[in-house]
């Protein structure tokens, strides 16, 4: 779900111009994601991190063990339901309990639609999927890089994640078709339309190409914009810059205490009323930006 990009100051949005200047995003030009480590390399990296921060290592171990226990409880009945062709709510319970295990406390603002809905949300971190999924039970659109990690790949596929590669522009039609098929089967799908993460203090431009699946939608449905609004400790945990996923996960799991996030479900609209994907993206982004600017002003 995350792709590292460089954001220029010229992309700052006038909606947020009246707010005190947010710290600039780190320069990630030239960043290349490291290869997926082998189990031995991952274990050695973990032991070195524990050696540097013993207390943090204890918290990572406890939270990690909690997450494994949650997976052990939720995955067998979920897989059984899938094998029998029956609906399963165990994926949602997994995400709800995993959110708490990560120290995240969620508050819901507004009313989420329960079916025939395409959620479009802002994006801070890999935890956004746990947060939004714990509330809605939705499937997600994710960056293809997630599929390279065996454990994460398995968990994502258990939740019917659709992997896309935004760099393969010649395959956009194929990816749009995959999204339409998943939405027709699942009736709920979520997209982080920025295509990357920010620090929660701004909203980056939307990538509109995949929204072509909604013009027209494969079935009667609504688009519901969503704002993921973290408190300041949560914003400090955003996955940005040249930090790897493993480093961010360590930072999040090693910290003391909890942090809070409000999930704002905004007024839904009918995508069939939009003339094209760019108009749809603009309407969703405008709604998210308006609410985000309001919540940022309130937190200053």
Could you explain how this protein is built, in words?
With 300 residues, the chain is an alpha/beta fold. A seven-stranded mixed beta sheet has the order 1-7-6-2-5-3-4, with helices on both faces. Strand 3, helix 5 and strand 4 (162-164) form a beta-alpha-beta unit. Helix 2 crosses helix 8. 43% of the residues lie in helices and 13% in strands. The protein has a single domain, classed as Glycerol-3-phosphate (1)-acyltransferase (3-Layer(aba) Sandwich). It contains nine helices and seven strands, in the order αααββαβαβαββααβα. Mean pLDDT is 88; it is low at 1-13.
CATH top-level class: Alpha Beta
Q: What is the molecular shape?
A: globular
Order of strands across the main sheet: 1-7-6-2-5-3-4
Low-confidence stretches: 1-13
Q: How many runs of DSSP E, i.e. beta strands?
A: 7
Alpha-beta classification: alpha/beta
**What is the CA–CA distance across the termini?**
29 Å
Q: Which fold name is given in CATH as the topology?
A: Glycerol-3-phosphate (1)-acyltransferase
Q: Name the assembly state.
A: single chain
Number of helices: 9
Named at the architecture level, the CATH assignment is: 3-Layer(aba) Sandwich
Strand content: 5-15%
Share of helical residues: 40-55%
Topology order in helix (H) and strand (E) letters: HHHEEHEHEHEEHHEH
Mean pLDDT over the full residue set: 88
Radius of gyration: 19 Å
Largest sheet geometry: 7 strands, mixed
Number of domains: 1
């Amino acid at each position: 779900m995350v792709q590292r990009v460089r954001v220029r100051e010229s992309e700052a949005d006038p909606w947020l111009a009246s707010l005190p200047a947010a710290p600039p995003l780190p320069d990630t030009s030239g960043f290349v994601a490291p290869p997926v480590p082998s189990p031995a390399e991952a274990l050695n990296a973990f032991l070195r991190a524990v050696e540097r921060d013993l207390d943090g290592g204890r918290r990572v171990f406890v939270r990690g063990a909690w997450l494994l226990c949650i997976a052990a409880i939720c995955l067998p009945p979920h897989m059984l339901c899938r094998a029998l062709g029956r609906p399963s709510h165990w994926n949602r319970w997994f995400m709800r309990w995993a959110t708490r295990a990560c120290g995240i406390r969620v508050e819901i603002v507004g009313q989420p639609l329960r079916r025939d809905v395409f959620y479009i949300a802002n994006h801070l971190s890999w935890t956004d999927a746990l947060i939004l999924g714990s509330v809605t039970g939705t499937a997600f659109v994710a960056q293809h890089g997630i599929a390279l990690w065996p454990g994460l790949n398995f968990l994502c596929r258990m939740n019917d994640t659709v992997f896309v590669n935004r760099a393969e522009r010649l395959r956009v039609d194929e990816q749009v078709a995959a999204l339409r098929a998943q939405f027709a089967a699942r009736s709920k799908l979520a997209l982080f339309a920025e295509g990357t993460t920010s620090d929660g203090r701004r909203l980056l431009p939307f990538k509109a190409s995949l929204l072509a699946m909604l013009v027209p939608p494969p079935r009667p449905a609504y688009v519901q914009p969503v704002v993921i609004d973290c408190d300041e400790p949560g914003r400090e945990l955003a996955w940005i810059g040249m930090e790897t996923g493993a480093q961010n996960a360590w930072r999040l799991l090693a910290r003391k205490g909890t942090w809070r996030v409000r999930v704002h479900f905004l007024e839904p609209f009918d995508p069939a009323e939009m003339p094209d994907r760019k108009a749809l993206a603009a309407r969703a982004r405008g709604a998210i930006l308006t609410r985000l600017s309001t919540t940022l002003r309130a937190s200053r």
